[in-house]
Amino acid sequence: MITARAETVVVGSGPNGLMAAVMLARAGREVLLLEAGDRFGGGLRSGELTLPGRVHDLGATVMAMTLASPAFRALRLEGVEFVHPPVALAHPLDDRPAVLLHRDAARTAEGLGRDGRVWQATVGAAARAGFPLMELLLSPLGPWRATPREFARAARFGAAALLPATVLARGALRTVEGRALLAGLAAHSMLDLRSPTSAGYGLALGALAHLVGWPLVRGGSQVLADALVAELRSLGGQAVTGHRVERLDELDARTVVLDVTPRQFLAMADLPPRYRRALSRYRYGPGVFKMDWALDGPVPWRDPEVGRAATVHLGGTLEEIAVAEAEVAAGRHSMRPYVLAVQPYAADPTRGGHTLWAYCHVPNGSTADLTDAVEDQIERHAPGFRDRVLARHTMTTADLEAVNPNLVGGDIGGGLNSLAQFLRRPVWSPAPWRTPLPGVFLCSASTPPGPAVHGMGGWQAARLATQAERHAR
Ligand SMILES: Cc1cc2nc3c(=O)[nH]c(=O)nc-3n(C[C@H](O)[C@H](O)[C@H](O)COP(=O)(O)OP(=O)(O)OC[C@H]3O[C@@H](n4cnc5c(N)ncnc54)[C@H](O)[C@@H]3O)c2cc1C
């Protein structure tokens, strides 16, 4: 049965789907955007999860990749204000002051003592190489367009980036602080820190802090999603919530752009056997257990400097974080997990009071409630935290997948971030956004350059769709 008809249909309104819809509408296409949820945005959704008036981001809060993204920079959206916390990131430690990641590389290096010089020579140098380097990282086609000088800079950075975080940390860094900082950053990858490329995630996130900062969207991430929808509508596009597409044959469209992951695509379409087999081999990563709190005041961090950072990494030393992440990679729960926390009030006082969110990694599909383990890690560095809690909201992996089907088994990255899947995301191809079905494109975080709010998957899918249209004429 045909249920939706338009020249171009975009399925899913995460940052990639929204970016594709806007780019195609700007190219003069008639665009219909269909979103299964009751709100646009996917990982950009915000809502009152705890108390009335408290704005919580359901997914992404920290918009470093957004500022670095060539797609978002080209868009020049109106009405979206990025606000920077005084400190990008804090990593508290038990017996010493917290490690701080500042916007300024030199200031960060100063706090790292004996490791300051190495930090400047790696992360600082990558940041100083500027946006061309980040464009190279954000676009898998980039290296072939780069100048020899840009390529040489990227290659210098790239060699260290290929290493496991544990190897780079132990080989290049000497201090507890430097090693912990790298481990906390690298653990964003959700990889075992003994895996190749886990260091790369750490270095890239550090470089982004120096390059563009780790800002938030004033008022909540939903503001960014709503601005993209408004832009689409101003160009004549239509956008509908509460419409879940189960099968592609429900759509009557010349072009379809899918902001879904391989497992959903497999269920939606009859695909050629070879491509189907390749998608069936696609691997999902660990899930997350996520918590949101309404607090009656700021978190009482033992080291007050931590209160100036929007993002806080909890879990202690390199060794502790490496053990916690290895447990999860092996399919077990860590009772002393690495916890990634965000306190938006450090940058944005417009969210209805003090709110906090945090997640820890868990095995994909886990049903466990890790409330105590997560709160213990916060209490460890902020005694009295639990007394500040007015209300809490928890989400297991199944709860996450229920609000966003792209979060398969609670995997917030759209698939494992391994080296193999960096090259084969979701298939080995110079244009993996194209599918064997004519006019059908994939754009989600399961395509390059992978997770985060950069919209580059959507930008690439829209570029290929526009090209295909031109050739067909
Ligand atoms: C808890 C959490 C914290 C995060 N923190 C950050 C952060 O701080 N910074 C950062 O950069 N990134 C962060 N991320 C990652 C980031 O949110 C994602 O990488 C990004 O949103 C992926 O965008 P996407 O467009 O590929 O898909 P998504 O944002 O996942 O959106 C997919 C959309 O498609 C819809 N959909 C799926 N199937 C269908 C269907 N069949 N029919 C109709 N609609 C459908 C879904 O409902 C959803 O709205 C976080 C994610 C989570 C979950």
Automatic annotation (TrEMBL):
Gene3D superfamilies: FAD/NAD(P)-binding domain (3.50.50.60). Pfam families: NAD_binding_8. This is Phytoene desaturase family protein.
